[in-house]
Amino acid sequence: MRKCFFGKDKMIEIIVNTNSKNSVKKLSELEKIFKAEKIAYKVHRTSKTITAKELMDEVSSEELIVIGGDGTINEVINNYRDEKIIYLAKGSGNDLARSLALKSENIMNLIKSNKVSIYDVASVNGEKFCSGLDIGFNADIIKREKQTKLKKYLKKYIYIYCGILSLLSLKKYYVKAEYDEGKIESSNIYLFNIMIQPYEGGGIKFSDTANGQNGFLHVMVMNDMNFRTFVYNYICLLLKQHQKMRGVKYIKTKKIKIETDQKHYQIDGELKKAKGILDIKCIEKFYKIKRK
What 3-state DSSP class applies to 292? Predict the structure, then answer.
């Protein structure tokens, strides 16, 4: 049987991304608080060979603290078993925390809180993601970000740097997509963006309709437009001026199947190989986040 916080045999369990200095620093702060409060805790640490997904097999509590970024919480969700999560975002982008409006880090208030919000996820061929999936321009940015050695110097500005380079070599891709009420087929896709939450890409609001609680995938397609229009639309995204965008197709659907000639796509800031058909679905009311 799993143990609850502040029960007779209370035990706080923590998953921390030890590859992040900010996450390790936050863990140190929590440990001081827990020792002062005489609260028992157990830490599960990621490493170069052990992921947060694997560490979830060792979790035995109904509630869990996760310290890390979008990649860490993505791994947790991919081995999630109904835990109530206290998420302390310490990554470079922190898009999920931004989407969920997680501002309070008063750990004792969060532990004692009974307030829980439940959110949807999406899955692509069975792999879950919390924020977004991209084919086209955004996936090329993530590919550059994974390949560059400048991330430790540029930090949160790495996406701007990689975005500029990707823009200078902007590519078009073939995408065939079939969804609830129609289909799209084009060889002129600049961006095929699927959101379950509003933010991704280090703070860009790609969807002004997604909120992770309405049971839909929110799709935005930029195709059959010239380079200048694409740049204009992307600037509108950066400025949160969605209503001013031109020639953009929007789709709201429960599921979508995609074929593409791009050899990679991205989910929650992680690069994935595109093999065969991408079968994407919304899974409603999947995970629980504790709030103040």
Answer: coil
Q: Answer positive or negative: Cα dihedral of 16, 18, 19, 20.
A: positive
**Residues 267, 273, 278, CA angle at the centre, nearest 5°?**
70
Distance CA 229, CA 58 (A): 50
CA 223 to chain centre: 24
DSSP β-ladder status, 132-136 and 182-195: antiparallel
Q: Calculate the alpha carbon distances from 179 to 57, 83, 252 in Å.
A: 35, 32, 9
pTM higher than 0.90? yes
- pLDDT for 154-201, tens place per residue? 877 888 899 999 999 999 999 999 998 899 999 999 999 999 999 998
Question: 251 forms bridges with which residues in the sheet?
Answer: 219
* Mean pLDDT, rounded, for 95-123: 93
- As a whole number of angstroms, the distance between CA 197 and CA 209 comes to 9
Are 176 and 183 in contact by the 8 Å Cβ rule? The answer is yes
Please list the residues that pair with 252 across neighbouring strands.
218
Classify burial at 106, counting beta carbons within 10 Å of its beta carbon; exposed 0-12, middle 13-18, buried 19 or more: exposed
Q: How far apart are CA 29 and CA 16, in angstroms?
A: 13
Distance CA 89, CA 69 (A): 5
Q: How far apart are CA 259 and CA 147, in angstroms?
A: 25
Q: 10 Å Cβ neighbour count for 159?
A: 24
**HSE-up of residue 245 (Cα within 13 Å, Cβ side):** 25
Average pLDDT, the chain: 93
DSSP assignment of 136-185 equals EHHHHHHHHHHH-S-HHHHGGGHHHHHHHHHHHT---EEEEEEETTEEEE
Per-residue pLDDT, averaged over 264-281, amounts to: 95
